[in-house]
C-alpha cells in the first residue's frame, strides 16, 4: 500500500511539473475508480463516462494548484464530486446509486453478481433479487453517506483519503459510514447473514 502511494505521489509530482506521460499513467490507474464513484451517484453510464473525462481534463488543468502530490487521489475525487454536484444542480443527472460493494463476513455483494454456470434459475433469480435490494438500499441513503460507502467499500479509500476528498474531518467520515452501515443492515437483513460483522 505504501509502495503504491509512493508511486502515485511520484507520478503526481512529475505530472505537476508538466510531464504528460506521468499524467497518462495516473489516468490509467485511477480512471476506473473515478468512473465507479461517479456512476454510483448518477447511474447513467454515458453521463458517468463524460464526467470522468471532464474530471481528468480539469485535474490536468489544475495540477499546478495541487499542494501535496500525496493527496492526489482525494483531490481527484473532490473534482469528481464537484462535477457531480454541478450536474445535479443543472437537473440533468438522476441521483440514484449504482450498486456498491458491501463487505460482510469476508464476502462481497458485488454490483454485477456473476452467476455460476452450474446454478439453477432459482439461484440466479435470488442473485438478481439481492442485487436489486442493494441498489434500492444504497439509493435510499443520503448522498454524503452513499459517497462514503462507495469510496470506502468499492475503492478501498482510507478515512483520511475520503476526508480529503470530501472536505470534512476523518471523524465525520467515520460517523457517516457508521450511520450508512446501520441503515444498510436494517434494509438488507433478510439477504445478509451476520450483519453485526458489517464493516
Summed up, what is this model?
The chain is mostly helical. Helix content is 67%, strand content 3%.
Structure, explained:
The chain is mostly helical and 199 residues long. It has 2 domains: 2-90, Rna Polymerase Sigma Factor, Chain: A; 102-197, Arc Repressor Mutant, subunit A, CATH 1.10.10. The protein is 67% helix and 3% strand. A two-stranded antiparallel sheet has the order 1-2. A hairpin with a 2-residue loop joins strand 1 and strand 2. Helix 2 (20-42) crosses helix 6 (143-154). Residues 93-118 and 194-198 have low confidence and may be disordered.
Topology, element by element:
Blueprint: H1 2-16, H2 20-42, H3 45-62, H4 72-90, E1 102-104, E2 107-109, H5 121-139, H6 143-154, H7 159-166, H8 170-188
Antiparallel strand pairs: 1-2
Helix pairs in contact: 1-2, 2-3, 2-4, 2-6, 3-4, 4-7, 5-8, 6-8, 7-8
Amino acid at each position: 500500500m505504501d509502495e503504491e502511494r509512493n508511486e502515485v505521489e511520484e507520478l503526481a509530482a512529475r505530472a505537476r511539473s508538466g510531464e504528460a506521460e506521468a499524467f497518462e499513467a495516473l489516468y490509467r490507474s485511477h480512471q476506473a475508480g473515478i468512473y465507479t464513484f461517479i456512476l454510483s451517484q448518477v447511474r447513467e453510464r454515458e453521463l458517468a463516462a463524460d464526467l470522468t473525462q471532464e474530471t481528468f481534463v480539469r485535474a490536468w488543468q489544475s495540477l499546478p494548484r495541487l499542494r501535496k502530490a500525496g493527496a492526489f487521489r482525494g483531490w481527484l475525487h473532490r473534482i469528481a464530486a464537484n462535477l457531480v454536484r454541478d450536474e445535479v444542480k443543472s437537473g440533468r443527472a438522476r441521483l440514484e446509486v449504482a450498486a456498491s460493494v458491501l463487505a460482510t463476513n469476508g464476502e462481497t455483494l458485488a454490483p454485477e453478481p456473476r452467476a455460476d454456470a452450474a446454478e439453477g434459475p432459482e439461484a440466479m433469480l435470488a442473485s438478481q433479487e439481492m442485487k436489486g435490494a442493494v441498489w434500492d438500499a444504497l439509493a435510499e441513503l443520503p448522498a454524503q453517506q452513499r459517497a462514503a460507502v462507495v469510496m470506502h467499500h468499492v475503492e478501498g479509500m482510507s478515512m483520511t483519503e475520503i476526508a480529503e476528498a470530501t472536505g470534512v474531518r476523518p471523524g465525520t467520515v467515520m460517523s457517516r459510514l457508521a450511520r450508512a452501515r446501520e441503515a444498510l443492515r436494517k434494509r438488507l437483513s433478510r439477504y445478509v447473514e451476520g450483519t453485526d460483522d458489517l464493516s
